[in-house]
Amino acid sequence: MIIANLIDRFPRPFKFAIVGGVAALVHFCMVILLVETQHLNPLLANVFAFCIAFCVSFSGQKLFTFADRQRSVKESIGPYFLISLTSFIANELLFTVALYFLKIPYPLALVMVLMVVAVGTYFGSKYWAFSISKK
């Protein structure tokens, strides 16, 4: 209980960064794993990695970052998915540019892209997906 009380005192952006960091690490590792072991194109591997990271991210944000908000899973998953999908589209476009136009190696390009899209995801989550219910 002491740890839970301590965690509750963390500012929301810090909690979001922890969960987002874990989801980004899962995303990154999945891309590397799929490219290196299954020889998938990095852009295709990115799609599969997004699906797995989405589950990690939504669960963590719902249960940890925005646990004090009273929105149900049903109320928050749709907006969160749209925010994540929009972020993923930006991710995939930026990843394409980094890989094919800027010729940045895929692991470095992915790290850069994941960091950029995280900012938009935070604000969309805070002000829409996990906003305070108007009941």
Report on this structure.
The chain is mostly helical and 135 residues long. The protein is built from five helices and no strands. It has helices at residues 2-8, 12-38, 42-65, 73-101, 106-129. The longest helix is centred in the middle third of the chain and has 29 residues, at 73-101. It starts with a helix and ends in a 6-residue tail after the last helix.
Structural class: mainly alpha
Give Rg in angstroms.
16 Å
- The CA-CA distance between the termini, in Å, is 30 Å
Overall 3D form: elongated
**Poorly predicted spans:** none
Assembly type of the chains comes to single chain
Topology:
Blueprint: H1 2-8, H2 12-38, H3 42-65, H4 73-101, H5 106-129
Which features does this protein show?
mainly alpha; 82% helix; single chain; 135 residues
Give a short synopsis of this structure.
This protein is an all-alpha fold. The protein is built from five helices and no strands. The chain has helices at 2-8, 12-38, 42-65, 73-101, 106-129.
